[in-house]
Recover the amino acids of this structure.
């Protein structure tokens, strides 16, 4: 890999003196670096390959960090990182882990926000622009947003307000004709029309909103990008540049199979085989997918709903086979929940499926459109729990978010059989919205079928009867509870083990009964403690002599911290839990 | 008031045989009824006066409830209620309280959703349409949405998806050129252009999104409405009807002063004087408004941000006087928070102000755009707390919503002086996002200035030192705590009284110290208990001998239930609290 030009670039100003030929060489070098690096480590592949030229042109024409770039989601900011002092993290394998996959102000003065969710860039850029105006600056503010991100409501609120601001703000729409999956929605017809007419069609969403509009036919052509950016630089009013790029540009497989190459696991560039060679075990996601497809085949009123991530929320089967029973709303979680409520109201059976981190985007719709109306939609929540994810994709918060809304029943299955029974019941019942937290762990199977009947709400199950200590293990942490129980036996404590099943309510009868022969109840939940499940147990026992210990995550944002470190920090290992239990029991002895 | 035509209308089918003349008479009669009723009881005035003819025409042409109308916010559904069997509640003063101010499925089969927040109708209608399609129906689904509501992201997500559905859905855009306040945003330039050109302009947002588009020049003219509705009925693809109506139509003052007459308190139709004649006391809202104006006059980097409700969130002063320091984003709470984060990042001092019920609309932005980035924006939350409001405007949920997000400091002032100090500190500091829960009570003033320094986070204040029982009274419930303390003295208990000030964290040192000479801690919070403040205190003491009682609201939706009833139900009266305290103390005695 020859990196003759890149070799000379340590900060954006080093670009300014290059010729077009050199800039083009640089594009090629950066593309080589990206392909090599991302195929080795995994990461966002297609989005970054498409943005190489545009990023070079932005840094060539504008003056970062005085002029400010805000990348939407920022999963396409690798070239930006390479050009702003962080190239070693992409070239040198030993440094591969030293920068994050998103923009990060802690890394560089050229980054302004830690971002990871979509559709936020225009609104954040509006903030920088308004801040500039009241503080008294005159720099350019540029938001860079993909066509997929434009489907989210926040992006539209941003467009609507940016257009009205009447001040400098430049919105670069990177139109590669793809969300993660294919795009859906009226907006995309307009983008297609504009591409076909090279921006000349009368019907123009951006002009209709009041923007000055520029079209760049080949968004991977440096010269036309530079020309356009020069034209709009320092304009004193809002501008949209609509550029057409090729997602995955420069790596043939990624150009052809855009969805599969949006984000990749490490793979071998020669053989194209995945580098991960472990055995693949069926996941809860797979089980869910199969169940939903089978169920939907038999019941034509079932509708699977996704907000642009069908493959990771177990809707791939329905997507492929049952077109009329599948809706991809784009990155529009608010619409997804309201849609589900409406379908349920009209007698259909909606199953709306999300990652934990993205269901955060629709709290008000869960509360108002769905829960107040008490419509029997099924919601699936994937990837909830403590994880080593980056800070913007944490699955810590769905329990406080969902479980404190009245009317919603939030269930936490502990095994494959229980999960299937819960889905079956949720889809069949007609009383309440039911959310299910799909376990974020390896599949646990008992082989014993569970009756799909959860009509009696908030009924916990005592799995193993004991005394002195009761362990309430919620969802995927039930197995941790089981392990703790087994180890406690070794120190002579015969603990009770409980599967609460319901996150959203207390089994007061069972909890009262525990008082007869238990001194301590511990709760285990895979999520943040604040506002979560365990605190409700603590509140229940507040005026009783029962001692309670809540185990779960501390209220903090964590960024790619290894799971073992977090488990240790939060006392979520068998040893530390048992130590905490023994301390309380010791205390109680002293008191007596 | 002659109601000759209305007299004959008990359900929509009674309309079908009327002539245009009779329909016009009916409009006049309904308008008289509305003016008389709303001026007597208060309620949404302008929005309903503007919608009389359109509602009659809808029911004349379509076949409700088979054809289904979904009203956005549904604050304009009074005529709909009158025509669907509920006219007595508008004509007969004795029945005035018997229907709600919004659509309500429990009242009528012609209502499909309990609604109260904006921008949801298109998405809910998409759900009804998709439900129809999978269940096998063929009715018309009509969403009725005002231009103001179109500024919200969910409305856009709905438009984008409705356009793509390719099936029957009719969106009636009621363009009266006003949100609650005046409209802002690029969208409104397009609506204005379409009005000016009578729908003929080439730049057309709705057509750009893929809708068949119809324009109705006079949306208060029955004949042209009927003609247009007949044209689009039973169309098998998505249609937008853009009609221009006059907000407040038929009541001159309301036509002229559209904002003041959006929602009215009871007033005398003859004299136009308000019927409420009690003395007006300065509210926390007024104090906040004055403070912000004064502060912003002196500091040009302060920016007040509202989502279309400036007058009720204490931004009226800045709005009137400091145009460059004021942003009304429309009904776009998500944008408001991202904007605030951006302004803070660029060195400005944003103050974004919301009602508790509406801050629910921006959870993900609070978490991602603001808290993860830890930008020092100030957020004001008004009207948080238990109230007799309708179910969709409850202020119960802001504490669980905001306080379980890391990095945000959520403060609860107990007096005017503390509130001013907290605002002063929040705006001046540069460390964290700070939210302040403006007390939802009569103003309490001590006359003693409070130092604007809350740098030491989570430091509670012991206001009165005692023993045995400690009362932690949060925010507006601090005074309740004080009253409980005083009454406890009468029964020989000298309780400690604590003002926690911080909702978002525990003062562990103080809580530990309480163990020395207290047996019971009680928490008082004006909000839902689940996920709230008190549960964190319960968790803290879970493994200690300290008893804890959490007082607050049960997890339930309540609809216009009188406050006394709720306080009684939740044990939030001095008597009931003291009874509960005494029960615990009795219990403890038995144990010893």
């Amino acid at each position: 890999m020859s990196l003759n030009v890149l070799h000379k670039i340590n900060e954006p100003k080093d670009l300014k003196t290059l010729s077009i030929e050199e800039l083009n060489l640089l594009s090629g070098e950066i593309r080589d670096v990206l392909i090599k690096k991302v195929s080795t480590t995994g990461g966002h592949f297609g989005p970054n390959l498409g943005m190489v030229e545009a990023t070079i042109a932005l840094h060539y024409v504008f003056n970062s960090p005085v002029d400010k770039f805000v990348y939407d989601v920022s999963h396409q900011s690798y070239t930006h990182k390479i050009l702003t002092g962080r190239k070693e993290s992409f070239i040198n394998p030993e440094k591969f882990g030293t920068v994050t996959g998103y923009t990060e102000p802690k890394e560089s003065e050229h980054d302004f926000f830690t971002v990871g969710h979509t559709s936020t860039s225009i609104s954040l850029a509006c903030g920088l622009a308004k801040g500039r105006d009241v503080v008294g600056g005159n720099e350019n503010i540029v938001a860079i947003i993909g066509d997929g991100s434009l489907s989210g409501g926040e992006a539209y609120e941003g467009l609507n307000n940016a257009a009205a601001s009447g001040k400098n703000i430049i919105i670069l729409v990177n139109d590669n004709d793809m969300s993660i999956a294919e795009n859906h929605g009226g907006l995309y017809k307009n983008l297609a029309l504009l591409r076909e007419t090279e921006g000349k069609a009368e019907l123009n969403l951006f002009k209709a909103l009041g923007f000055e509009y520029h079209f760049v036919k080949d968004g991977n052509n440096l010269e036309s990008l530079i020309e356009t950016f020069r034209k709009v630089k320092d304009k004193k009013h809002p501008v949209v540049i609509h550029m057409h790029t090729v997602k995955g540009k420069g790596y043939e497989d990624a150009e052809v199979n855009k969805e599969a190459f949006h984000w990749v696991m490490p793979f071998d560039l020669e053989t194209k085989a995945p580098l991960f060679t472990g055995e693949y075990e069926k996941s809860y996601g797979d089980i869910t997918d199969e169940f939903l497809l089978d169920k939907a085949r038999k019941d034509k009123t079932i509708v699977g709903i996704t907000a642009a991530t069908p493959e990771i929320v177990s809707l791939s089967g329905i997507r492929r086979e049952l077109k009329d029973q599948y809706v991809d709303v784009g990155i529009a979680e608010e619409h997804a929940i309201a849609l589900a409520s409406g379908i349920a109201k009209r007698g259909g059976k909606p199953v709306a499926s999300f990652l934990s981190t993205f269901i955060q985007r629709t709290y008000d719709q869960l509360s108002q459109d769905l829960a107040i109306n008490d419509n029997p939609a099924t919601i699936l929540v994937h990837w909830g729990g403590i994880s080593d994810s980056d800070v913007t994709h944490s699955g810590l918060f769905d329990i406080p978010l969902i479980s404190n809304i009245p009317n919603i029943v939030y269930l936490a299955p502990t095994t494959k059989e229980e999960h299937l029974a819960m889905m079956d019941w949720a889809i069949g019942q007609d009383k309440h919205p039911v959310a299910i937290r799909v376990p974020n762990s390896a599949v646990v199977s008992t082989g014993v079928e569970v009756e799909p009947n959860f009509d009696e709400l908030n009924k916990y199950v005592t799995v193993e009867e004991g005394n002195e200590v009761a362990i309430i293990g919620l969802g995927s942490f039930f197995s941790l509870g089981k392990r703790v129980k087994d180890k406690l036996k070794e120190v002579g404590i015969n603990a009770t083990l409980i599967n609460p099943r319901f996150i959203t309510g207390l089994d007061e009868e069972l909890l009262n009964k525990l008082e007869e022969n238990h001194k301590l109840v511990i709760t285990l939940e895979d999520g943040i403690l604040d506002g979560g499940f365990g605190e409700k147990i603590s509140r229940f026992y507040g005026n009783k002599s029962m001692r309670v210990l809540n185990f779960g995550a501390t209220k903090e944002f964590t960024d790619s911290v290894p799971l073992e470190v977090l488990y240790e920090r939060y006392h979520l290992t068998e040893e530390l839990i048992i130590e905490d239990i023994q301390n309380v029991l010791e205390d109680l002895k002293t008191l007596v």
